[in-house]
Protein backbone atom coordinates (compact mmCIF):
# COMPACT_ATOMS: atom_id res chain seq x y z
CA UNK A 1 0.00 0.00 0.00
CA UNK A 2 1.36 3.46 -0.92
CA UNK A 3 1.81 6.17 1.70
CA UNK A 4 -0.80 8.34 -0.03
CA UNK A 5 -3.35 5.50 0.15
CA UNK A 6 -2.64 4.99 3.85
CA UNK A 7 -3.04 8.70 4.57
CA UNK A 8 -6.29 8.85 2.58
CA UNK A 9 -7.65 5.92 4.59
CA UNK A 10 -7.00 7.86 7.82
CA UNK A 11 -8.64 11.13 6.70
CA UNK A 12 -12.43 10.89 6.43
CA UNK A 13 -13.18 14.50 5.49
CA UNK A 14 -11.62 17.91 4.93
CA UNK A 15 -14.07 20.76 5.51
CA UNK A 16 -13.19 24.26 4.26
CA UNK A 17 -15.30 27.08 5.71
CA UNK A 18 -14.88 30.70 4.57
CA UNK A 19 -15.07 33.35 7.27
CA UNK A 20 -14.35 37.02 7.89
CA UNK A 21 -10.76 36.26 8.91
CA UNK A 22 -10.00 33.83 6.08
CA UNK A 23 -10.51 30.14 5.51
CA UNK A 24 -11.08 27.65 8.32
CA UNK A 25 -9.80 24.13 7.63
CA UNK A 26 -11.16 21.16 9.61
CA UNK A 27 -9.50 17.79 8.99
CA UNK A 28 -11.57 14.87 10.31
CA UNK A 29 -10.40 11.31 10.68
CA UNK A 30 -8.23 8.92 12.67
CA UNK A 31 -5.87 11.35 14.42
CA UNK A 32 -4.38 8.59 16.58
CA UNK A 33 -3.49 6.64 13.43
CA UNK A 34 -1.91 9.69 11.81
CA UNK A 35 0.09 10.44 14.97
CA UNK A 36 1.16 6.81 15.16
CA UNK A 37 2.58 6.97 11.65
CA UNK A 38 4.21 10.34 12.33
CA UNK A 39 5.88 9.11 15.52
CA UNK A 40 6.77 5.72 14.00
CA UNK A 41 5.31 3.99 17.08
CA UNK A 42 3.38 0.74 16.97
CA UNK A 43 1.29 1.40 20.10
CA UNK A 44 1.30 5.09 21.02
CA UNK A 45 -0.12 6.12 24.40
CA UNK A 46 -3.06 7.92 22.76
CA UNK A 47 -4.33 4.59 21.43
CA UNK A 48 -3.98 2.84 24.80
CA UNK A 49 -5.84 5.64 26.59
CA UNK A 50 -8.96 4.84 24.57
CA UNK A 51 -10.02 8.37 23.73
CA UNK A 52 -8.42 11.45 22.24
CA UNK A 53 -9.90 14.75 21.18
CA UNK A 54 -7.73 17.50 19.75
CA UNK A 55 -8.60 20.97 18.52
CA UNK A 56 -6.15 22.85 16.30
CA UNK A 57 -6.43 26.56 15.61
CA UNK A 58 -4.22 28.48 13.19
CA UNK A 59 -2.57 31.59 14.55
CA UNK A 60 -2.85 35.15 13.27
CA UNK A 61 -1.75 35.57 9.68
CA UNK A 62 -2.50 31.99 8.63
CA UNK A 63 -3.24 31.75 4.96
CA UNK A 64 -3.94 28.60 2.92
CA UNK A 65 -1.23 27.43 0.56
CA UNK A 66 -1.84 28.28 -3.09
CA UNK A 67 -0.40 26.36 -6.00
Protein architecture, described:
- This protein is an alpha+beta fold and 67 residues long.
- The chain has one domain.
- The protein has helices at 3-10, 31-39, 45-49, and strands spanning 11-19, 22-29.
- The protein is elongated and about 40 Å long.
- The model has no long low-confidence stretch (mean pLDDT 72).
List strands and helices in order, with pairings:
Blueprint lengths: L2 H8 E9 L2 E8 L1 H9 L5 H5 L18
Can you give keywords for this protein?
single chain; 67 residues; alpha+beta; two-stranded antiparallel ribbon; 3 helices; Recombinase family protein
Intertermini distance: 27 Å
Mean pLDDT: 72
Low-confidence stretches: none
Shape: elongated
Rounded Rg: 14 Å
What pattern of helices and strands is seen along the backbone? HEEHH
- Sheet with most strands: 2 strands, antiparallel
Protein name: Recombinase family protein
Organism: Sphingomonas populi
In short, what is this structure?
With 67 residues, the protein is of the alpha+beta class. It has helices at 3-10, 31-39, 45-49, and strands at residues 11-19, 22-29. 0% of the residues are buried.
Amino acid sequence: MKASEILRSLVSAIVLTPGDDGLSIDVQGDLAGILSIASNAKNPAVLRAGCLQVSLVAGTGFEPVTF
